[in-house]
Each structure stands twice: as structure tokens, then as C-alpha cells.
Amino acid sequence: MSVDLIIPTLNEVDGIKNIMPKINQDWVDRILVVDGGSTDGTVEEAKRLGYEVILQKGKGHGAAFLTGINATDSEYILLWSPDGNHEIEEIPKLIEKIKEGYDQVLISRFAKNSINEDAGYLDTFGNKMFSFITNCFFGGHWTDSLNESRIISRKALMEIKEDIEKSKMSSTQQMSIRGLKRKQKICEISGNERPRIGGERKMKPIPVGAALSSQIINEFVFWKK
């Protein structure tokens, strides 16, 4: 099986310096940094370390993911953040798990035995709430439907790629929802979330919460398979 690792970046130079060198390049076939317009030297540092870098087309996380998808042809795509939240050792765990025949496997920061040192009370409440609502509306068992750190088969991705392209909202929540609606075989593995390394958190709770709520309503009311 072939696996390409996509690393979306936006002003993550500290993470690139400290996290990327720890990734065992034998774990995957290709590592691709997709940059959204960093101004802190992220691109230069990634290139200095020898990584392939491309500039994303459009704005937002979904645009970065789609840019990476369109630039690769592997059987599986692994999406990973360089901010240090997740432990590098979880990358091979994702790869091993999807070999069991799953379409999507993601890391849960809120599963049993997971340790979360980064999310505050508001973030934790919001994530658990949206995961619960997603499960109630679409019949899943997510404990962390919003986490971007996941691996997905290209076959499964092609089933929902057009949906992500049309959406202006969260691509991670949409992959979780559409995976359920398309009856994909999905699962989570428990993982720890450590304090991020450098940079600033880009998530704004109130506008993001409103967008996620709107997305769930839109998916439930207006979209049918």
C-alpha cells in the first residue's frame, strides 16, 4: 500500500523545525507540505530541511487538503498538523489500523485513555457536543469528529471530494459526516494531545461554532445521498 503524508501549514515555523525532523520518512511514500501563505519562514525552513513544498490554492483548511490531494496519487492520504499537538508515534498507528480494511481512521483526543493537555473547557465542550450531534443525526460513534489528524483511502476520498470542494466550511467535520452518510467503514484510535509548539491557535470558538452548527443543519436538512 502507498501512503502520502500531507502537512498543511500557515505560520508554523517552530513546528516545522521541531516536529518534522522526528517523522520517520520510511513510514510513508511521500511527505508534502502544503502552505497557505506563511510569513514567518515556514516555507523556507521546510525547504531547508529537504521537504517538498507546494502553495495551496484558495483559503482555509479544506483548500490546503484539496491542494494536497490533487498533487498526490497514493492509495491513502494521511493528514497531519506540524503543531506538535499529536505525538509522531501515532502516524504508524494510523497506518497499521487502516490496513484492517477501514476507509477512514482518525485520532481521538477524547477517547478512553486519551490525554488532552491543550484543549480548554470551551474547546472540549464544543468538540464533544458537535461529535454527539453528528452521531445523533447521522448514526455514528465519533468521540472526536473534528480532529484533522486522520488517514483516509483514496477510494473513500473520491466519494466525498466533490462535497469538500463545494463546501466553504469545516472539511474535517464534513469528512466525518459524509463518511457516515456514505456508509464508509470508519474508526478512531485513542491519542494524546500535547501543548502546541509555537505559533498561535487559529481557531476562533464563536465563529467556528456557528459555522459548524450551520454545516450540520445544512447536511441534515438539505443533503441526501
Automatic annotation (TrEMBL):
Domain Glycosyltransferase 2-like residues, every copy: 5-160
Xref: InterPro entries: Glyco_trans_2-like, Glycosyltransferase_2, Nucleotide-diphossugar_trans
Pfam families in UniProt: Glycos_transf_2
Name of the protein described by the UniProt record: Glycosyltransferase 2-like domain-containing protein
Source organism of the structure: marine metagenome
